[in-house]
Amino acid sequence: MLSRTADHLFWMARYTERAENTARMLDVQVQTVLLPQPAENTQMAWAGLLGISELIGDYTRQHGAIDPERVLDFMVRDPANPSSILSCLRAARENARAVRGAITSEVWETVNQTWLELQRMVASPQLRRDPGSLFEWVKHRSHLSRGVTSGTMLQDEAYHFLRIGTFLERADNTARLLDVKFHARQNDFHGSNGARGQEYDFYHWSGVLRSVSGFEVYRKVYRDVITPERVAELLILRADMPRSLAACMRAVAAHLREVANPQSAETQRRAGLLNAELQYGRLDDILDTGLHAYLTHLLERINDLGAGISQDFLAA
Amino acid sequence: MRFYDEMATEGGGVRPHYAQYAQWLAQQAPDAIRAKRDEAELIFRRVGITFTVYGDEAGAERLIPFDLIPRIIPAAEWKYLEAGLKQRVCALNRFLHDVYHEQEILKAGIVPQPQVFGNAQFRAEMMGIDLPHQVYAHIAGIDIVRAENPAGQGEYYVLEDNLRVPSGVSYMLENRRMMMRLFPELFSLYPIAPVAHYPDSLLEKLHDVAPPGVNDPTVVVLTPGMYNSAYFEHAFLAQQMGVELVEGQDLFVRDDFVYMRTTQGPQRVDVIYRRIDDDFLDPQVFRADSALGCAGLMRAYRAGNVNLANAIGTGIADDKSLYPYVPKMIEFYLGEKPLLANVPTHLCREPESLAYVLAHLPELVVKEVHGAGGYGMLVGPAASREQIAAFADKIKAHPDHYIAQPTLALSTCPTYVDAGIAPRHIDLRPFVLSGKSVSIVPGGLTRVALTEGSLVVNSSQGGGTKDTWVLER
Q: What residues in A contact B273, CB-CB < 8 Å?
């Protein structure tokens, strides 16, 4: 397969996944701020949301103080923000259009249709009244796009590069989400005191779980109250949890093996190592390192892996 | 001016091959048809069957309007057309081989030498290069129009040969798919010849002309990229043939062989169906500023290690100033009488013709010799006095840049317009494929000028398309 084609497929999948994750975070955010709580908490939550995508600087330069409606616009439909849902889905569609011969008509039509409908939706007044329905829709389109990919595409290189893009992006997003959410409750775990504080904690952690479709999974796995340690364990080490780091890296390593070429040995090794560490890791060791330090290092390695894939397969 | 209508007879009746359709149409509720039109537009948009208009806002994608009423060609007419088209394309390929080798036709004085050597479309770089099966124009789009002859019958004329990178075949295929989806019942009513095998036929021809000794040739489609107006078609054909769609940046030349960059390392390329003009193919030989082509391609081509479809330098045969000589080429190379007529053409470079043209501008259609896509032409009967005066100045300044033809009474076909159904002018572009042999998929792209009275069918000028039915009996 052409290197350029692989590159477009990889990024098409990454942008689709990124749009979904942004929608997930915004969805939970919008629901959370409806709860009664001190103003500075909501303020912090919006800032934290921008922090996940490293966009606080960009936002304040353009819009100044944190204002929920402006943050929402910035993250949903600002064409100048490369991480907005609009920009991500446009980029996904442009990448798909560049290689529409390498994907099935069904995949192309799904991606194209998403873009056509999104333009209409972000222009509608409905967005202000009920932003949740847009986030719901973005998630559904992402589900559909993945489903139509696995349901119609030959499992050749094109398919593997799409999957690598999806899981690498998801790993990156999950790691960022965890890092910021744990940071928001300072000292990793012992942020809040008193009954009110514990109540906030519950909503904080259940919000994190819901943003990765993990709330029901958590109940099923632990059958117990929500504790930050278990949230971390679920989202980092549980390979059967589809949005966990372990699940993502297992998929990345497996799909990378399928496309191996003479120069990709080092990238394969690094992906394999990271995968093994997550499959056999223990939460206690991670906490000993410090969660923030651990996640920062992990994000660097995910980033490196992306660069290695680009160099070995996509640049040629 | 009288127009030949494809469906209606002079006395208000319906031609026999449209009878069943007319009956069917009369039974359709207007609402149902409107719903079908909306459905068609929705599907075209979702599938992304769009084209880009140059000079429009950057990257704007538009739909080509699709008309629901088909253009029907009876079996006997098609048989004649098919024979005429094959004859013409054979002669054109013979001419191209000749002009880049012995130049017999020039020596015989049938085509004047200055018409060839003074023409920018003549590529001296092609002299003496031997191509597989001596085919230059593997894909030819021949523009056909129909007008009433003195006997009151519709007669087909060749308006123009397109031998460089003719486009439009994807619309022929998608229009058929759309009609089958919207009106399946019509396909049991009529014996309509299928067209869906065009990509297979094309791939077969491309395999035919692979460099000698290559058994399982790697074919690619070379596109200028997704912002080109015909990008949809490039991607569509690559996908339908199951070959890679490449851009110039994906190719490189080493030791006079062409390779593409793949995830598994370099892979040799044997046949390039290129959808890029000659000028942009190789910056080492043609335009140095081209980022669309591949440096060294011409060397590999000369060495016979790669073949290009179409060949470089085919423009010398479809240039509007060479067009008047095509009937003579047919007689010279094939010893046959041309089956399809040319439109009478005045070359403004000849002083008598120039005088005639300038005196009769309001009746004539004047075209730029190197123009394409309906840009830079004058349709005399539709032009204002000021436009005609301005155009006359342009012709006087560069007579050799222009040819003129009588305004043809292009045939009309009933078409959906805002007010209902009305006759609109149409043309036809069948696609002729040449490899070891010559073949034509029964059909073509029918373009329709949607503006009342307009004779310009180009999509860049607001034209639409119709499905074209060739009847099997």
A: none
